[in-house]
Design brief:
211 residues; Maf protein; 8 strands; 28% helix; globular
Amino acid sequence: MSAEGNEPQAIRKLKPGRLVIASHNEGKVREMRALLAPYGMDVVSAKELDLPEPVENGTTFFANAEIKARSAADLSGLPSLADDSGLCVDALNGDPGVTTADWAETPTGRDWNLAMRKVEDALSLKEPGTSRAAHFVSVLALAWPDGHVEWFEGRADGCLVWPPRGTVGFGYDPMFVPLGGDRTYAELSAEEKGAISHRADAFRQLVAAVF
Protein backbone atom coordinates (compact mmCIF):
# COMPACT_ATOMS: atom_id res chain seq x y z
CA MET A 1 0.00 0.00 0.00
CA SER A 2 1.10 3.58 -0.58
CA ALA A 3 1.32 6.29 2.05
CA GLU A 4 -1.90 7.28 3.82
CA GLY A 5 -4.08 9.53 1.70
CA ASN A 6 -2.83 8.20 -1.63
CA GLU A 7 -4.30 5.50 -3.85
CA PRO A 8 -3.08 1.94 -3.17
CA GLN A 9 -0.24 0.84 -5.42
CA ALA A 10 -1.09 -1.80 -7.99
CA ILE A 11 0.28 -5.24 -7.28
CA ARG A 12 2.99 -6.16 -9.77
CA LYS A 13 2.03 -8.86 -12.26
CA LEU A 14 4.18 -11.94 -12.86
CA LYS A 15 4.90 -12.72 -16.49
CA PRO A 16 5.32 -16.30 -17.77
CA GLY A 17 8.95 -17.37 -17.66
CA ARG A 18 11.54 -18.71 -15.27
CA LEU A 19 10.76 -18.56 -11.57
CA VAL A 20 12.88 -19.70 -8.64
CA ILE A 21 11.28 -21.53 -5.74
CA ALA A 22 13.46 -20.31 -2.89
CA SER A 23 13.59 -23.56 -0.96
CA HIS A 24 15.74 -26.65 -0.45
CA ASN A 25 12.75 -28.56 0.98
CA GLU A 26 11.84 -31.05 -1.73
CA GLY A 27 8.33 -31.63 -0.39
CA LYS A 28 7.58 -27.92 -0.38
CA VAL A 29 9.09 -27.45 -3.86
CA ARG A 30 6.99 -30.34 -5.17
CA GLU A 31 3.80 -28.78 -3.84
CA MET A 32 4.61 -25.32 -5.19
CA ARG A 33 5.67 -26.66 -8.58
CA ALA A 34 2.31 -28.41 -8.90
CA LEU A 35 0.41 -25.27 -7.91
CA LEU A 36 2.32 -23.20 -10.48
CA ALA A 37 2.01 -25.72 -13.32
CA PRO A 38 -1.06 -24.15 -14.99
CA TYR A 39 0.44 -20.65 -15.23
CA GLY A 40 3.23 -20.97 -17.75
CA MET A 41 6.09 -20.73 -15.29
CA ASP A 42 9.40 -22.52 -15.85
CA VAL A 43 10.04 -23.47 -12.24
CA VAL A 44 13.49 -24.20 -10.81
CA SER A 45 14.37 -24.63 -7.15
CA ALA A 46 17.10 -22.86 -5.20
CA LYS A 47 18.63 -26.27 -4.58
CA GLU A 48 18.75 -27.04 -8.31
CA LEU A 49 20.54 -23.73 -8.86
CA ASP A 50 22.93 -24.53 -5.98
CA LEU A 51 21.94 -21.34 -4.18
CA PRO A 52 22.87 -21.16 -0.49
CA GLU A 53 20.20 -21.19 2.20
CA PRO A 54 20.10 -17.76 3.86
CA VAL A 55 19.98 -17.35 7.63
CA GLU A 56 16.33 -17.03 8.59
CA ASN A 57 16.63 -14.66 11.51
CA GLY A 58 13.25 -12.96 11.16
CA THR A 59 10.73 -13.05 13.99
CA THR A 60 7.66 -13.48 11.76
CA PHE A 61 6.63 -15.69 8.87
CA PHE A 62 6.54 -12.56 6.68
CA ALA A 63 10.11 -11.61 7.51
CA ASN A 64 11.54 -15.08 6.92
CA ALA A 65 9.66 -15.53 3.64
CA GLU A 66 11.05 -12.20 2.45
CA ILE A 67 14.61 -13.11 3.48
CA LYS A 68 14.47 -16.29 1.39
CA ALA A 69 12.76 -14.71 -1.62
CA ARG A 70 15.10 -11.68 -1.74
CA SER A 71 18.21 -13.84 -1.40
CA ALA A 72 17.20 -16.11 -4.28
CA ALA A 73 16.16 -13.19 -6.48
CA ASP A 74 19.43 -11.33 -5.82
CA LEU A 75 21.62 -14.35 -6.51
CA SER A 76 19.74 -15.71 -9.53
CA GLY A 77 18.59 -12.50 -11.20
CA LEU A 78 15.13 -14.07 -11.51
CA PRO A 79 11.78 -13.56 -9.80
CA SER A 80 11.71 -15.81 -6.76
CA LEU A 81 8.92 -17.24 -4.65
CA ALA A 82 9.48 -18.29 -1.05
CA ASP A 83 7.20 -19.86 1.51
CA ASP A 84 7.64 -19.58 5.24
CA SER A 85 5.17 -21.73 7.06
CA GLY A 86 4.64 -23.32 10.40
CA LEU A 87 2.43 -25.12 12.86
CA CYS A 88 0.86 -23.01 15.61
CA VAL A 89 -0.65 -24.89 18.56
CA ASP A 90 -3.18 -22.98 20.64
CA ALA A 91 -2.31 -24.64 23.96
CA LEU A 92 1.40 -23.99 23.40
CA ASN A 93 0.90 -20.24 22.94
CA GLY A 94 1.35 -20.55 19.19
CA ASP A 95 4.51 -22.67 19.28
CA PRO A 96 6.34 -24.04 17.36
CA GLY A 97 5.29 -21.11 15.10
CA VAL A 98 8.17 -19.40 13.34
CA THR A 99 10.56 -21.92 14.95
CA THR A 100 8.66 -24.87 13.42
CA ALA A 101 11.70 -26.23 11.56
CA ASP A 102 13.98 -25.70 14.57
CA TRP A 103 12.00 -28.26 16.56
CA ALA A 104 13.16 -30.85 14.01
CA GLU A 105 16.86 -29.97 14.08
CA THR A 106 19.40 -32.63 15.07
CA PRO A 107 23.19 -32.80 14.59
CA THR A 108 22.62 -34.87 11.46
CA GLY A 109 19.71 -32.94 9.92
CA ARG A 110 15.98 -32.50 10.45
CA ASP A 111 13.99 -35.26 12.10
CA TRP A 112 10.27 -34.56 11.78
CA ASN A 113 9.31 -37.57 13.88
CA LEU A 114 11.31 -36.00 16.69
CA ALA A 115 9.59 -32.65 16.10
CA MET A 116 6.15 -34.22 16.31
CA ARG A 117 7.13 -36.04 19.50
CA LYS A 118 8.28 -32.72 21.02
CA VAL A 119 4.88 -31.18 20.27
CA GLU A 120 3.08 -34.18 21.75
CA ASP A 121 5.30 -34.20 24.83
CA ALA A 122 4.62 -30.49 25.39
CA LEU A 123 0.86 -31.08 25.13
CA SER A 124 1.06 -34.01 27.53
CA LEU A 125 2.24 -31.64 30.26
CA LYS A 126 -0.99 -29.67 30.04
CA GLU A 127 -4.17 -30.29 32.02
CA PRO A 128 -6.29 -33.27 30.89
CA GLY A 129 -8.79 -32.19 28.27
CA THR A 130 -6.62 -29.32 27.03
CA SER A 131 -7.57 -28.25 23.52
CA ARG A 132 -5.58 -29.83 20.72
CA ALA A 133 -6.61 -27.11 18.28
CA ALA A 134 -3.87 -25.94 15.92
CA HIS A 135 -3.44 -24.19 12.62
CA PHE A 136 -0.89 -24.03 9.86
CA VAL A 137 0.21 -20.66 8.48
CA SER A 138 1.85 -20.07 5.11
CA VAL A 139 3.25 -16.74 3.96
CA LEU A 140 4.38 -16.51 0.35
CA ALA A 141 6.83 -13.78 -0.60
CA LEU A 142 7.35 -13.07 -4.28
CA ALA A 143 10.49 -11.03 -4.94
CA TRP A 144 11.96 -9.50 -8.08
CA PRO A 145 15.68 -8.78 -8.64
CA ASP A 146 15.00 -5.03 -8.35
CA GLY A 147 13.85 -5.50 -4.74
CA HIS A 148 10.09 -5.36 -5.23
CA VAL A 149 8.22 -7.85 -2.98
CA GLU A 150 4.60 -8.99 -2.68
CA TRP A 151 3.24 -11.07 0.23
CA PHE A 152 0.29 -13.43 0.61
CA GLU A 153 -0.86 -15.20 3.80
CA GLY A 154 -2.84 -18.44 4.04
CA ARG A 155 -4.17 -20.43 6.97
CA ALA A 156 -5.64 -23.88 7.64
CA ASP A 157 -7.31 -24.71 10.95
CA GLY A 158 -7.54 -28.16 12.48
CA CYS A 159 -6.50 -30.31 15.41
CA LEU A 160 -3.64 -32.60 16.37
CA VAL A 161 -3.83 -36.38 16.71
CA TRP A 162 -1.49 -38.94 18.21
CA PRO A 163 0.04 -41.22 17.09
CA PRO A 164 0.89 -39.74 13.68
CA ARG A 165 -0.94 -41.22 10.71
CA GLY A 166 -0.13 -41.39 6.99
CA THR A 167 2.94 -41.34 4.80
CA VAL A 168 2.13 -38.93 1.96
CA GLY A 169 3.00 -35.53 3.41
CA PHE A 170 6.03 -34.03 5.13
CA GLY A 171 6.83 -32.10 8.27
CA TYR A 172 4.02 -32.18 10.83
CA ASP A 173 1.45 -33.43 8.29
CA PRO A 174 0.98 -36.86 9.93
CA MET A 175 -0.41 -35.34 13.16
CA PHE A 176 -2.63 -32.58 11.68
CA VAL A 177 -6.29 -33.19 10.80
CA PRO A 178 -7.84 -30.23 8.94
CA LEU A 179 -11.09 -28.76 10.23
CA GLY A 180 -14.10 -30.79 9.11
CA GLY A 181 -11.99 -33.79 8.09
CA ASP A 182 -11.09 -37.11 9.66
CA ARG A 183 -7.79 -37.79 7.89
CA THR A 184 -4.42 -36.18 8.50
CA TYR A 185 -2.67 -34.15 5.84
CA ALA A 186 -0.37 -37.17 5.38
CA GLU A 187 -3.37 -39.41 4.63
CA LEU A 188 -4.62 -37.14 1.86
CA SER A 189 -3.54 -37.33 -1.76
CA ALA A 190 -1.46 -34.46 -3.09
CA GLU A 191 -4.53 -33.21 -4.96
CA GLU A 192 -6.73 -33.34 -1.86
CA LYS A 193 -4.21 -31.52 0.31
CA GLY A 194 -3.55 -29.03 -2.48
CA ALA A 195 -7.21 -28.01 -2.45
CA ILE A 196 -7.42 -27.17 1.26
CA SER A 197 -3.95 -26.50 2.65
CA HIS A 198 -2.60 -23.29 4.14
CA ARG A 199 -0.17 -23.06 1.23
CA ALA A 200 -3.00 -23.48 -1.28
CA ASP A 201 -4.93 -20.71 0.49
CA ALA A 202 -1.98 -18.33 0.16
CA PHE A 203 -1.39 -19.44 -3.41
CA ARG A 204 -5.00 -18.70 -4.43
CA GLN A 205 -4.46 -15.14 -3.24
CA LEU A 206 -1.19 -14.90 -5.18
CA VAL A 207 -2.82 -16.20 -8.39
CA ALA A 208 -5.69 -13.72 -8.12
CA ALA A 209 -3.24 -10.86 -7.65
CA VAL A 210 -0.28 -11.47 -9.96
CA PHE A 211 -1.46 -13.61 -12.89
